[in-house]
Amino acid sequence: MRDLLVAAAFDLFTEHGYENTTIDDIVRLAGVGRRSFFRYFPSKEDVVFPDHERALADMVGYLDQDHPGQDAVTVACGAARVVMRMYAENPAFSVRRYALTRKVPALKAYEISVVWRYERALAGYLERRFAALPDGGARAHAVAAGVVAAHNYGLRSWLRSGGSGEVAASVDPALDLVRRTWRDPEDTVVLITRADTPLWQVVQRVETALRAPDQDRPGPARD
Amino acid sequence: MRDLLVAAAFDLFTEHGYENTTIDDIVRLAGVGRRSFFRYFPSKEDVVFPDHERALADMVGYLDQDHPGQDAVTVACGAARVVMRMYAENPAFSVRRYALTRKVPALKAYEISVVWRYERALAGYLERRFAALPDGGARAHAVAAGVVAAHNYGLRSWLRSGGSGEVAASVDPALDLVRRTWRDPEDTVVLITRADTPLWQVVQRVETALRAPDQDRPGPARD
């Protein structure tokens, strides 16, 4: 029923335009009553973004889990990928919605407010994780905004390409840039060695010092 | 006339609530006609944010200027301070609006869309500045979002304090965190010295190596 309403709505939006389509038109094409529509969607905007409430809940659920060995910024990037996967579930629908959202200012405004809710959820999580830092609040908000912006940048590239290929191939490099940039700045390795140290010994010491960065590197192969 | 309309609107919003106040109420209290209202403000929301169009234009003007010796992230932080000064011009009004915006979802949504326009202007500037970098696009969007989030974080702290003290004292440390974090990562100084080097000599070499960081450090004293 829910999927039927979304499909009917998108067919009408595509054919007649979003503004020219009424909720009555949608329920008529879907063959259901008005009350059914409002059982699933509070407004016409909501039928365009049917999965965001679930994605937001999934993201919050992800943040509430334990992520042993992962720093807070890495967890925030992982949470952004929860949303990314929602887009990846149905590339054709995501691309169609992207085309619609770019054309209709009301939907663009709705989308911006949805993005803001994701960002707020991330900032809340990071504020708790950074509570002990003197600049924890500002850091939490700047990281959350950076993660969301990087995710959206990668996502838009993928949507503009028509949703071809893996969305992660667009999103992961952008998220990784934010992750590397915002990781604990004290996390720097300085290696001081005599010039006549054998290379194998230097490599060994570097390896020990690097605290297994591969373990928390994001990537589709590990998710 | 414009100020009169804003003052009348805020008096009514405070007394009767935003939703319960009509444009007719506002023009009646201000003693002007409806057409005068619409000459200045396209909608009721706009009267709550009378200076954002100007601040956005000022910010774009700032970004278009030359900023010799400043890296792109520092210029973006300077552009955010253009908006900050708009809030600082009239602390009482800014605090009053903040209280109103927190209560009225329609105004919150409007504010989010305004913030998004600032962020887009910054991202556009940074994309041009980072055009030669392989990760320039993602970097531009992550930095722009971080600058805006840091600015808003500092601004909110100041507004919550009732607008007492210098707004820059709240905003500058947050912006500076973003600036330091996102500056060219190759911009690192490694000083290698013998353990018996006199301190004054080390200090001198550090001073030379640091490329005068004070020149582009943000701060109210220099603006």
From TrEMBL, chains A, B:
Signal peptide: none
Stretches that traverse the bilayer: none
Pfam families assigned to the protein according to its UniProt record, in alphabetical order: TetR_C_14 (PF17754), TetR_N (PF00440)
Location of the HTH tetR-type domain: 1-59
Keyword field: DNA-binding
Record-linked InterPro entries: DNA-bd_HTH_TetR-type_CS (IPR023772), Homeodomain-like_sf (IPR009057), HTH-type_TetR-like_transc_reg (IPR050109), HTH_TetR (IPR001647), MftR_C (IPR041347)
Segments of the chain annotated as binding DNA: 22-41
Name by which UniProt lists this protein: TetR family transcriptional regulator
